[in-house]
């Protein structure tokens, strides 16, 4: 028996009209661009090339760009599904290939759909801290982002005439609805679904949405009202962190200086209100107290404004080290924090001391610090 293959013309639902496709496409162009630019920013901060400069003020900027990254990515999922629904009858268009440009266009749409789905799915799994794959997420997510944005640009260039026609005032298509669903109805459902997805997750970073966002499972929970990604037990640092032999070793051109916890506590203390802004999109502001990096470097005989590499008691963790640029080591709000929200730092938040710097991704806020090399 042969299954009947439908013809492109037999899909008469209003959801498949050009005007619907173009409007959803426009929304996707906005969310994809936002997602790409904010993702690029996050990548550059974590792997800064020589020309790149990221300021330490305003302290909340990365919180906003990374929140926008995750929110625009989440919003893209229902939009992409709606767009594919809108255009899938084209799969039944015949002949399959009309010309070489037509073949290339179809191929580019295949690459576009595959890379866009890959980005949205891997991003979503990362937000859920679920890694059902065996590649290193940030590298692959970053590489495929270029493929996705490249094929988006090709797609927009190719479709520009269609988009113009579809968004023009003159409505040549009837607002037909043989299946009862109007164009407006399909679009309204799409915007509503997207809105619900955004509100359900945005509470991870937008404080007043916290109570509404059923899916923002991280914010506000954890010791001292700040979430924890990697616990002290998970990082296998508990004995070293609690050891009376713990010393902070500061290495600079002036030699090596060691500080006990009591000595750090005796240095001038600075308090700052700073957010932890995780790449996964959650963020949480808190009050941190400790030795500012300018004070620490001076106490060690070095000078603020030089890059410093930070090492943790944690062995083998991918976030066990970080580099603080000079922009941050000269900022008095960059702390080697000893206290969080008025209490001695919890073991899970990095006891005896951890880095907390303004306007930085969470992955660079190294916990259980044992060494600073200027
Ligand atoms: N040594 C070490 N520091 C680390 C991490 C880690 O895995 N190991 N995780 C980082 C990440 S991804 C984030 S978001 C912040 C979270 O800090 P918190 O657990 O105190 O909220 O710590 C950072 N510091
Ligand atoms: Mo993080």
UniProtKB/TrEMBL annotation:
<feature type="transmembrane region" description="Helical">
    <location>
        <begin position="140"/>
        <end position="158"/>
    </location>
</feature>
<dbReference type="InterPro" id="IPR000572">
    <property type="entry name" value="OxRdtase_Mopterin-bd_dom"/>
</dbReference>
<dbReference type="InterPro" id="IPR016174">
    <property type="entry name" value="Di-haem_cyt_TM"/>
</dbReference>
<feature type="domain" description="Oxidoreductase molybdopterin-binding">
    <location>
        <begin position="239"/>
        <end position="374"/>
    </location>
</feature>
<protein>
    <submittedName>
        <fullName>Molybdopterin-dependent oxidoreductase</fullName>
    </submittedName>
</protein>
<feature type="transmembrane region" description="Helical">
    <location>
        <begin position="66"/>
        <end position="86"/>
    </location>
</feature>
<feature type="transmembrane region" description="Helical">
    <location>
        <begin position="20"/>
        <end position="46"/>
    </location>
</feature>
<dbReference type="Pfam" id="PF00174">
    <property type="entry name" value="Oxidored_molyb"/>
</dbReference>
<feature type="transmembrane region" description="Helical">
    <location>
        <begin position="191"/>
        <end position="209"/>
    </location>
</feature>
<dbReference type="InterPro" id="IPR008335">
    <property type="entry name" value="Mopterin_OxRdtase_euk"/>
</dbReference>
<keyword id="KW-0812">Transmembrane</keyword>
<dbReference type="InterPro" id="IPR036374">
    <property type="entry name" value="OxRdtase_Mopterin-bd_sf"/>
</dbReference>
<feature type="transmembrane region" description="Helical">
    <location>
        <begin position="107"/>
        <end position="128"/>
    </location>
</feature>
<keyword id="KW-0472">Membrane</keyword>
<keyword id="KW-1133">Transmembrane helix</keyword>
């Amino acid at each position: 028996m042969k299954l009947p293959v439908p013809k492109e013309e037999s899909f008469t639902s209003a959801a498949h009209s050009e005007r619907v496709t173009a409007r959803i496409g426009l929304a996707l162009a906005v969310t994809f661009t936002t997602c790409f630019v904010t993702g690029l920013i996050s990548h550059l901060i974590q792997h800064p090339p020589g020309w790149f400069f990221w300021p330490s003020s305003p302290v909340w900027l990365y919180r906003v760009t990374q929140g926008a990254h995750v929110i625009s990515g989440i919003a893209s999922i229902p939009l992409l599904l709606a767009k594919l629904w809108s255009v899938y009858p084209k799969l039944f268009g015949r002949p399959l290939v009309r010309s070489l440009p037509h073949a290339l266009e179809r191929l580019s749409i295949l690459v576009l759909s595959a890379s866009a789905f890959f980005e949205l799915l891997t991003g979503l799994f990362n937000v859920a801290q679920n890694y059902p794959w065996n590649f290193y997420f940030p590298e692959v997510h970053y590489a495929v982002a270029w493929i996705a944005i490249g094929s988006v640009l090709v797609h927009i260039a190719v479709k520009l005439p269609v988009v113009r026609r579809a968004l023009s005032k003159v409505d040549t298509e009837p607002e037909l609805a043989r299946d009862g669903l109007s164009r407006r109805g399909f679009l309204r459902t799409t915007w509503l679904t997207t809105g619900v997805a955004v509100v359900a997750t945005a509470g991870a970073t937008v404080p007043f949405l916290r109570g509404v966002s059923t899916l923002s499972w991280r914010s506000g929970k954890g010791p001292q009202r700040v979430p924890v990604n990697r616990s002290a037990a998970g990082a296998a640092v508990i004995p070293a962190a609690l050891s009376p032999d713990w010393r902070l070793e500061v290495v600079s051109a002036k030699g090596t200086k060691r500080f006990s916890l009591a000595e750090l506590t005796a240095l001038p203390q600075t308090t700052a209100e700073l957010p932890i802004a995780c790449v996964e999109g959650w963020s949480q502001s808190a009050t941190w107290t400790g030795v500012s990096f300018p004070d620490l470097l001076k106490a060690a005989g070095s000078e603020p404004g030089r890059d410093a590499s930070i090492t943790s008691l944690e062995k083998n963790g991918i976030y066990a080290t970080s580099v603080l640029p000079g922009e941050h080591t000269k900022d008095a709000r960059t702390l080697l924090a000893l206290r969080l929200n008025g209490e001695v730092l919890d073991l899970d938040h990095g006891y005896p001391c951890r880095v907390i710097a303004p306007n930085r991704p969470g992955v660079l806020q190294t916990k259980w610090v044992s060494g600073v090399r200027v």
